[in-house]
């Protein structure tokens, strides 16, 4: 069993601290307003309700609904109860009770959220309050189902940084040393004619022509041909990604695809075989032959070695998260915690994803072999594996900027179906396409950050903020399924990037223990004994669970860093002032930056 200890219960369990904490989302209070509002956010309606708090019992309050959020404030101030829920977080809205309901608080609304919580509101039967709230919520929580714009398109916030400038594909490939004499950049997909779910710019083997790429595309699911994600700076081994080959039950072969994989293998020049990692369980890959898919058999690909990584599909992951939610919200059964957690299989799935990524990274680094990664369509498990392997091998991706680039590149530009997997603005709660694939990736990153606390520039709040805005629809970053659709909707022109928010207040998301010198490859321990449930994310809404408190040493360290920065700033100001008073003085030959370097203090 995993090393997840039973969550600690908070003796002051009724203080609603976890509920009040939701206010810390970057919003501002406006004068003479009962609710916080963002620029571009407008109030739609408000009603008196009774919030059926699973921790405190019934709470009288007033609920305000805007075009961005549901906001509740209790009438009583001792304790004050506040809910601040972006409408994009809502997955389902159901009416509770009917005209004949007579029980106390038995008439109202049940709201299911995507962030591990459920809400219940009781309303009076007279006055059509429930109908009004239901209609407004349904309309604005599911704009795609009502031909409305996402809030991101009316958000008028201003930030000092432009997050859309973070990722430039050509700049990122140049950082990796590409193109070179073995790999070239192709614009064959500039108008998305080759593959409508791939980015416009691709890196492919130098010896493969664009005509070759077209022929290969016909034999790969969704035309997602093998393309380069990352190249090792020393071994020149590469991580490639693609979708499954269209082998089918008859065992079809494609000479162009076989030759293309040979060209990829030959570009390395160090290893005689290309390693293929199929993320699926073997039995699933075989079953996919019945629908025209399949895998690379050794008869057709004698110069490749194939390994199955046994990572389950989106449906298994969705059910696993549902089970996890059942045991963490609203109540945590302490006496059976470990067995309940084990029954969800959530950490087992995290283990399998991490184990697969470790194999990919180790093969490229230690094995000096190029690898090809795919699942079925190459936009779910494939993205998990390539991005985690790159995170393990390349310290740049462990910086705040680098991680943003990694997400933009391997997830957003390469067509992870965010709209389908999250269900942005869609009322179809039971859609079989929904699945927590990106959440699993972020969980894996958190597991790594726990094992290597000085290797990542970003902190836990950075990861939680990304997940919160994965659902919120406040930014355009995660909207739509592909680069093609985002260009069609002019997302970068009409919406803001999540990275604008984060990069405008980086100190909030910076790990004070980060060590820039730790640029080696990181291989986390993917044993169940070393994996933990991410309590500060999955159980954060339960005020009875004691959240992990900030380390006092870390707090003091942050305070000292701030004090040092303040002294450095004052020193620079004094130097500038002195220089202006003593023109052309040799005594002022030391520059502010030189003086600053002399007073750098290592705590």
TrEMBL record:
Signal peptide start and end residues: none
Localization of this protein: Cell membrane; Cell projection, Filopodium; Cell projection, Ruffle; Cytoplasm, Myofibril, Sarcomere
Any one biological process term the GO annotation gives: phosphatidylinositol dephosphorylation
Main subcellular location of this protein, as a coarse class: membrane
Catalyses which reaction(s): a 1,2-diacyl-sn-glycero-3-phospho-(1D-myo-inositol-3,5-bisphosphate) + H2O = a 1,2-diacyl-sn-glycero-3-phospho-(1D-myo-inositol-5-phosphate) + phosphate; 1,2-dioctanoyl-sn-glycero-3-phospho-(1D-myo-inositol-3,5-bisphosphate) + H2O = 1,2-dioctanoyl-sn-glycero-3-phospho-(1D-myo-inositol-5-phosphate) + phosphate; 1,2-dihexadecanoyl-sn-glycero-3-phospho-(1D-myo-inositol-3,5-bisphosphate) + H2O = 1,2-dihexadecanoyl-sn-glycero-3-phospho-(1D-myo-inositol-5-phosphate) + phosphate; a 1,2-diacyl-sn-glycero-3-phospho-(1D-myo-inositol-3-phosphate) + H2O = a 1,2-diacyl-sn-glycero-3-phospho-(1D-myo-inositol) + phosphate
Name the record gives this protein: Myotubularin
Stored CDD domains: PH-GRAM_MTM1, PTP-MTM1
GO CC terms: filopodium; late endosome; plasma membrane; ruffle; sarcomere
Active site residues according to the UniProt entry: 375 (phosphocysteine intermediate)
Biased composition (Polar residues): 1-20
Membrane disposition: Peripheral membrane protein
Residues of the Myotubularin phosphatase domain: 163-538
Domain Tyrosine specific protein phosphatases, residue spans: 344-406
Record-stated family: Belongs to the protein-tyrosine phosphatase family. Non-receptor class myotubularin subfamily.
UniProt keyword list: Cell membrane, Cell projection, Cytoplasm, Endosome, Hydrolase, Lipid metabolism, Membrane, Protein phosphatase
EC number of this enzyme: 3.1.3.95
Residues involved in substrate binding: 313-314, 375-381
Ranges of compositional bias, category Low complexity: 580-597
């Amino acid at each position: 069993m995993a090393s997840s200890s039973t969550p600690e219960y908070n003796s002051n369990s009724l203080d609603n601290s976890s509920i009040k904490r939701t206010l810390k989302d970057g919003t501002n209070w406006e004068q003479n307003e009962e609710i916080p509002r963002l620029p571009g956010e407008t109030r739609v309606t408000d009603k008196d309700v009774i919030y059926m708090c699973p921790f405190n019992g019934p709470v009288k309050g007033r609920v305000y609904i805007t075009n961005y959020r549901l906001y509740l404030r209790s009438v009583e101030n001792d304790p004050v109860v506040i809910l601040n829920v972006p409408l994009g977080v809502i997955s389902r809205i159901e009416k509770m009770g009917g005209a004949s309901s007579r029980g106390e608080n038995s008439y109202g609304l049940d709201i299911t959220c995507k962030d591990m919580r459920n809400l219940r509101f009781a309303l009076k039967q007279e006055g059509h309050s429930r109908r009004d709230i239901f209609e407004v919520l349904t309309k604005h929580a599911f704009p795609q189902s009502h031909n409305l714009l996402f809030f991101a398109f009316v958000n008028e916030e201003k930030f000092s940084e432009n997050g859309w400038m973070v990722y430039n594909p050509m700049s990122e490939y140049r950082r990796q040393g590409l193109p070179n004499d073995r790999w070239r950049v192709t614009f064959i997909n500039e108008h998305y004619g080759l593959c409508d779910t791939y980015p416009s710019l691709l890196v492919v083997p130098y010896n493969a022509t664009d005509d070759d790429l077209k022929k290969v595309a016909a034999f790969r699911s969704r035309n997602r041909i093998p393309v380069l994600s990352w190249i090792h700076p020393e071994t020149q081994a590469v991580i490639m990604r693609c979708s499954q080959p269209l082998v089918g039950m008859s065992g079809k072969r494609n000479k162009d695809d076989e030759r293309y994989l040979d060209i990829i293998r030959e570009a390395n020049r160090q290893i005689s075989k290309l390693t293929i990692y199929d993320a699926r369980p073997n039995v699933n890959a075989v079953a996919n032959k019945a629908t025209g898919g399949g895998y690379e058999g050794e008869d057709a690909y004698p110069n490749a070695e194939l390994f199955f990584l046994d990572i389950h599909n989106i449906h298994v992951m969705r059910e696993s998260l549902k089970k996890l939610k059942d045991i963490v919200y609203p109540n945590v059964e302490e006496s059976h915690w470990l067995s309940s957690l084990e029954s969800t299989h959530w950490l087992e799935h995290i283990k399998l994803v991490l184990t697969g990524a470790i194999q990919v990274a180790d093969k490229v680094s230690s094995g000096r072999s190029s690898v090809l990664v795919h699942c079925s369509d190459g936009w779910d498990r494939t993205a998990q594996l390539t991005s985690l392997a790159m995170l393990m091998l390349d310290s740049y991706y462990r910086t705040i900027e680098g991680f943003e680039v990694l997400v933009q590149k391997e997830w957003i530009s390469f067509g992870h179906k965010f709209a389908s997997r999250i269900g942005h603005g869609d009322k179809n709660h039971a859609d079989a396409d929904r699945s927590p694939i990106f959440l699993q990736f972020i969980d894996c990153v958190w597991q790594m950050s726990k094992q290597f606390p000085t290797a990542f520039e970003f902190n836990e709040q950075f990861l939680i903020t990304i997940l919160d805005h994965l659902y919120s629809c406040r930014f355009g970053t995660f909207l739509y399924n592909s680069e093609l659709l985002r260009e069609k909707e002019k997302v970068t022109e009409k919406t803001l990037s999540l990275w604008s928010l984060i990069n405008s207040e980086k100190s909030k998301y910076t790990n004070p223990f980060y060590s820039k010198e730790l640029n080696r490859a990181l291989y986390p321990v993917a044993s169940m004994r070393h994996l933990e449930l991410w309590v500060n994310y999955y159980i954060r809404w339960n005020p009875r669970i004691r959240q992990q408190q900030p380390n006092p040493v870390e707090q003091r360290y942050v305070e000292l860093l701030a004090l040092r920065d303040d002294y450095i700033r004052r020193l620079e100001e004094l130097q500038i002032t002195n220089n202006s008073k003593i023109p052309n003085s040799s005594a002022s030959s030391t520059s502010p930056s030189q003086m600053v370097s002399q007073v750098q203090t290592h705590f």
